[in-house]
């Protein structure tokens, strides 16, 4: 029994729960219209402080990046990189990732490093904003 509980606990940490996902169209629209746009090598990112005790991540992968299988693969990779580094981001952000064509050929390590550095930059921005108050 203890063994089963341990595996359930370790598996629950591997999910990307609904609380940390942007789900509604209105939330995406708000981030696109009011958020800060940042162009990275193979990603376009939008970030907006949300004032909540948690951060949320959204992914938009356009059809121009390939068929559903390719787009879903990109989404899985971005979701995993985000999940691994969500702690660095801290609370209070809505983030939307929009990958570019180049994202299809980037290694996972580079993708993960880019997501991590973006999250750290957002966290630094949040700390700087709180110091100004």
Structure description:
- This protein is α+β, with helices and mostly antiparallel strands and 133 residues long.
- It contains four helices and four strands.
- The chain has helices spanning 2-12, 25-34, 68-89, 108-132; strands spanning 36-39, 43-49, 56-59, 93-99.
- Helix 3 (68-89) crosses helix 4 (108-132).
- It is globular and about 40 Å long.
- The model is unreliable at 1-12 (pLDDT under 50).
The CATH class is Alpha Beta
Percent range of helical residues: 40-55%
> How do the strands line up in the largest sheet?
1-2-4-3
Q: How far apart are the first and last residues' alpha carbons, in Å?
A: 51 Å
What characterizes the major β-sheet? Answer: 4 strands, mixed
Q: Structural class, judged by helices and strands? A: alpha+beta
| CATH topology-level fold name | Ribosomal Protein S5, domain 2
Output the helix-strand order: HHEEEHEH
Shape: globular
* Tally of DSSP β-strands: 4
Whole-number total of structural domains: 1
Gyration radius, in Å: 16 Å
Strand content: 15-25%
What keyword list fits this structure?
133 residues; alpha+beta; Ribosomal Protein S5, domain 2; globular; disordered N terminus
Summarize the structure.
This protein is α+β, with helices and mostly antiparallel strands. The chain has helices at about 1-10, 25-35, 70-90, 110-130, and strands spanning about 35-40, 45-50, 55-60, 95-100.
